Amino acid sequence: MPGSIRASGWGEAMARTIETVAEEIRSPSPGAMLRRRIFGHYGLVFGIAVLTIIVLIALFAPLLTSHDPYTQDLMARMKPPFWMAGHDPDHLLGTDHLGRDYLARLLYGARISLAIGAVAALISGLIGTAMGVAAGYFGGKVDLVVTFLINVRLAMPVVLVALAVVAILGGSLEVVIVVLGLLLWDRFAVVMRSSVMQVRDLEYVNAAKAIGCSVPRIVLSEIMPNVLNNLIVVATLEMAHAILLEAALSFLGLGVQPPTPSWGLMISEGKQMMLFEPWLIAIPGVALFILVLAINLLGDGLRDVTAPENRG
Amino acid sequence: MKTRLLVGSVAAVLAFSGSNALADKANDTLNVAFTKELESVDSYFNSAREGVIFQRSVWDGLLYLNQETGEYEGNLATSWQWVDDTTLELKLREGVKFHNGEEFDADDVVYTVNFVAKPENGVVVQRNVNWMKEAVKVDKYTVRIITNGPFPAAFEYLAGPVSIYPNEYYAEAGPAGMALKPVGTGPYQVESVEPGKHFVLKRYEGYHDSPKGAASIGTVDIRTIPDVNTQLAELFSGGLDFIWGVPADQAEKIAAMGRFTVANESTMRIGYLELDAAGRSGDHPITKAKVRQAIAHAIDRQAIVDSLLKGKSKVVHSACFPTQFGCEQDVTTYDYDPEKAKALLAEAGYPDGFSVDFYAYRDRPYAEAMLSYLAKVGIQANLKYLQYSALRDMRFKGETSMSFQTWGSYSVNDASAITSQFFKHGAEDFARDDEVLAWLNAADTSVDPAVRKENYSEALKKIADQAYWVPLFSYNSNYVFTQDAEFTPTPDEVVRFFQVSWKQ
Amino acid sequence: MLAFALKRLGLAVLVTLTVSLVSFSLLFMSGDPASAIAGENASATDIEAIRTLYGFDRPFLVQYTDWLFSALRGDFGQSYYFKLPVADLIADRLSTTMLLGICGISFALLTAVPLGVAAAVRPNSFIDRLALFLSVMGQAMPSFWFGLVLIVIFSINLGLLPPSGSSSWKNFVMPTVVLGYYAMPAIMRLTRAGMLEVLNADYIRTARAKGASEWRVMFKHALRNAVVPVVSLAAVQMGFMLGGSIVVESIFALHGAGYLAWESIARNDLPTVQALILIFSLFYIVFTFLSDLANAWLDPRIRVG
């Protein structure tokens, strides 16, 4: 175990649990192992490549399809995709339950799913990093308060609380993003706290203190660059987490509002016909799986590249 | 990988021939599924469709509405007549026994009616019972029911939601006891209740000579399975014999499989857009009649019926279900005409359309389809999909300017159950039209059918002219069951287990 | 040890109180429960009467302390929907969820720990790769998707397992696998890392040098040390899992506490939702408390502080 179990007392009592979470982040990942064993050195490359492609798709969606993702045609509902009999060459991936082009919805949906992951991770990253850095840098009472808050947050059942809040406020893109952002800051705080603790007493930090640098300056220019790698790793994991949670909320009918084409919503809408038209959930399901896989591989790869001492 | 598995498996499903369905016929057990967790099986303390289905099997009403002839027949009562405008005298059937052996007589009717009619006893659906003031015993087999003012729809309720409970048992057990161990006179008696989860019904061998007819199948086993996919998976793997409320697309596919009987029947539920003509939610374009008419012209209701609802659904034009008494059909209709809709919007001063929040609580695909039609004429409608109770709160407070609502009239075949519910200046009235109110009051309190009809007609014509509502379509329900079973659905959407039988 | 345990307990209580306050205020903000209680056909006056009857017009703190003191006595109020005591309702449903949680975590441990050990002992072997593959899949696959796929294969195609219900052990096989799979990657990853670290430690080399059998080295020396963080993680995951069983319960129609929570949210049944959030939190708090004690006992460095 890392040596951050400090003097006995409240701090120790509280830190025990959350160290487990930090431990999980710092331990070698399956992606790292996979990179070496299956893809050789290409795990990270694969992650970056796939993610880049998805980002490009999201940015240039209008150029990739001539169809509008919102235009419905009730006479052409649930046309099968190209590999099935009876498909319409004009709709490569078929049409959904309202006759909207499935490919167009998938391409435009990449925007929504990425936005949900990125913005939710950004919000939770800001909250969690601020708390974690403060706790790690100042220690003492600040650390006690932050550690306590992390414990409270970890004790709250995320899915249940997210569902309750979204049900109350009514589902919409903004609500889902903000709720996830406000709920997923715990790992940022945990990891930042222990990372900052490891570097705060290093010589150059002490030197900066000695020459009278201000606290924000020390944190931004001396500490942050040294913990950035951990921050990025957590950010990717939480981005993947947020995307999966949105899909789960959508599955339960409380995610993004139609007609916005999010992949989670497409799965939820296709679910109705899953026993008869399984491709309706297979297409967005596979897209979601690849996206989450790519983000995870990217995060794992970054961890290995930036923090070689953490390799198992 | 997953895709291939799923595709392969479905092909296998379609090729699969029913082999294990016989098992349940052999056990004389009909396995069915409820979609919703029933809060209480005491029929006065739930408001769900499942509750009505349970009620019709376990309890009896004083009257019975013959679904084929549309005539009222005696069930627990044998004859009845109005003594005056507010007093109904009924002769009761002799020799009927409750499931627990208690004898049925006037005391049971008096106790039940007096209990449910008291608002403080908290019957959930007050409208089912609050027309009754009290019941009075004349002799052992004669009672009088006194109503709160003239109430022409009384028979409808006596044959429907008003079921008669055993006085001694109910006095002792109360609603809580009745919910755990229900006792009635109906064709099925309750063997076990696991609240919300699982109910087992057994044929009541001592059932009286009722127009409902005795039950045919020995045991009905009801489980709550919320997800329609799980219900279908159970059906395909032989765990269920009978499900209903199957969405149109799935029903079509199942019918094509040929392993199950798929029966479609219309229901009394209609869908409609509720428009805030009175401006309760503030000043917005929808307060203008031309804008409301434009909305009515903008939506291709026939296409939605043909592609999404299918079955026996029909486009409706009047603010009620066509078979309901007083439901005037000769009203202004609004054809699908986007050009006319745009012209009307321009006349109203919105040539570029406008933006509005569109509220809905069920049938998201129908709502989505309507959004798309509205977008075509320039109305940018933002979907707000809420839970029923949350949306109702907002409507009560008058915060919605446009919402997609549905109403099933509790299968009461009378316009008072829908038009009067929504256009008499209550919390759910967004028209607030005094003329309509006067006509409806006249119609609701008269016992002369001609007077009632004429007044409903006036009210409904004005509602259509002003497009206070945009009536959309009637709903239908798909019933899917094993080919071993025989069942004919009825338009009141009540599954009568006692009318299901095994094929010989 | 005692001082540590007492402080840890004090913390647990404090966290519980804070969670209860947060969840109560969260739901308090949700607006008016009176309409939900009144049912589908109530009039505006009915709803007003209910509001006064239930005391929803009282100030927040009064309602909260009232609720808290009742909750301490095990009285969570009446469910608005079922009109039954919430405590009875939850007690009835909790057994299913607990059983599911225990099966799920057991499944996760029974697959993840051996796989993790095997992967650490024989890096690059087939088992190692299988373990990696399973864990990467588990990280990226939504559990509702996995559940639906299992139903299609094992219920519809093969007819081996019932798709829904909770009447026999067969009903729990698929939900267990789906729920357990959710916790497996993290546990496997940690076991493997811990084993790798321990196997390189001096005392293991010493044990090997002294001629102890490989099995003895593995289980007596290595695993015992590697398992310390796994215990904590399993406790954390178990806590998460109970809260996360909502999706699994709704797919397999298991009438457990997770499904009750989801339905209660949909029905605006606040007393039930409040009680469930508190109880799920309590599970997490109790599990992590116990695991911290277990760790303190397993790892003396912690007890002496």
Automatic annotation (TrEMBL), chain A:
Q: Which family does it belong to?
A: Belongs to the binding-protein-dependent transport system permease family.
Q: Name one GO biological process term.
A: transmembrane transport
The principal location of this protein is: membrane
Membrane-related topology note: Multi-pass membrane protein
- Please report the stretch or stretches of sequence annotated as the ABC transmembrane type-1 domain: 110-299
- Tell me where it resides: Cell membrane
Taxonomy of origin reads: Bacteria, Pseudomonadati, Pseudomonadota, Alphaproteobacteria, Hyphomicrobiales
Q: What is this protein called?
A: Binding-protein-dependent transport system inner membrane protein
Determine the domain of life of the protein's source: Bacteria
Transmembrane annotation, as ranges? 42-64, 112-138, 158-185, 231-254, 275-298
The UniProt entry, under InterPro entries, shows:
BP-dependent_transpt_permease, MetI-like, MetI-like_sf, OppC_N
Gene Ontology CC: plasma membrane
Q: Which keywords does this Swiss-Prot/TrEMBL entry list?
A: Cell membrane, Membrane, Transmembrane, Transmembrane helix, Transport
Automatic annotation (TrEMBL), chain B:
Which N-terminal residues, if any, form the signal peptide? 1-23
Q: Which domain of life is it from?
A: Bacteria
Name any GO cellular component annotation: ATP-binding cassette (ABC) transporter complex
CDD domains linked: PBP2_NikA_DppA_OppA_like_10
List the molecular function annotations (GO) for this entry.
peptide transmembrane transporter activity
The protein's location, in the record's own words, is: Periplasm
Q: Where is the Solute-binding protein family domain?
A: 71-425
| Protein name per UniProt | Extracellular solute-binding protein
Its chief place of residence is: periplasm
Task: Spell out the family assignment given in the record's similarity comment.
Answer: Belongs to the bacterial solute-binding protein 5 family.
Please tell me whether the keyword Signal is annotated for this protein.
yes
InterPro entries referenced in this protein's UniProt entry, alphabetically: Peptide/Ni-bd (IPR030678), SBP_5 (IPR039424), SBP_5_CS (IPR023765), SBP_5_dom (IPR000914)
Provide the alphabetized UniProt keywords: Signal
Pfam families named among the record's database cross-references: SBP_bac_5 (PF00496)
TrEMBL record, chain C:
Lineage start: Bacteria, Pseudomonadati, Pseudomonadota, Alphaproteobacteria, Hyphomicrobiales
Name of the molecule in the record: Binding-protein-dependent transport systems inner membrane component
Q: Please name the PANTHER family in this protein's record.
A: DIPEPTIDE TRANSPORT SYSTEM PERMEASE PROTEIN DPPB-RELATED
Q: Does the keyword Transport apply?
A: yes
Record field: transmembrane: 98-121, 142-160, 172-190, 226-255, 275-298
Write out the annotated subcellular location.
Cell membrane
Q: Which residues form the ABC transmembrane type-1 domain?
A: 94-291
- Predominant location: membrane
CDD domains hit by this protein: TM_PBP2
Gene Ontology BP terms = transmembrane transport
> Which chain positions lie within coiled-coil regions?
none
Domain of life per record: Bacteria
* Keyword annotations from UniProtKB, A to Z: Cell membrane, Membrane, Transmembrane, Transmembrane helix, Transport
Q: Membrane topology for this entry?
A: Multi-pass membrane protein
